[in-house]
Amino acid sequence: xxxxxxxxxxxxxxxxxxxxxxKDFELGKKLKNMPSPLKLLKTExxxxxxxxxxxxxxxxxxxxxxxxxxNGQVLHEGGVLAREWFDDNISEYIVYGYGFGYHILELMELxxxxxxxxxxxxxxxxxxxxxxxxxxxxxxxxxxxxxxxxSFNRLKAAVNNLNDEIxxxxxxxxxxxxxxxxxxxxxxDYFV
Length: 192
Description:
Number of strands: 7
Radius of gyration: 16 Å
Mean pLDDT: 92
Number of helices: 9
Largest sheet: 4 strands, parallel
């Protein structure tokens, strides 16, 4: 997708990066030092408009392309996933996979008292989310923490400390984006 087919402004991108930097200085610094997010669109990442007017992200070549969110009603579909995860007895969610955050927005809406720790291992996904989505509602919330974890060590530690009030869930399209098969399988094995 060429940049002429969708809206990209550095104003939105810089606003999102600044909000990230307020919570996680190191991640903000990494994002500020990265080349333009538009350069990623010349690699395996594709950003597309959806039928509802929001953006979605696909990864891979035309033969092997998969979407982190559909190219349809992404908020509705994020809501379906969030309601599937939601449990009245849970106060904290550990989520692997940010994508463009639609499932996180919808999970936030279900209960004002829950906290959500979102782990993402691909900084390119975070950068593209900064470039093509308004992340302010998520990033300005004290209840949500976006955690860049390329080694998956922080996620593994969190999963090892689960209790009855904490639920671990996976955004499966994001799981597919993990290149290291052994890490991907170990995260999946928790549910087997």
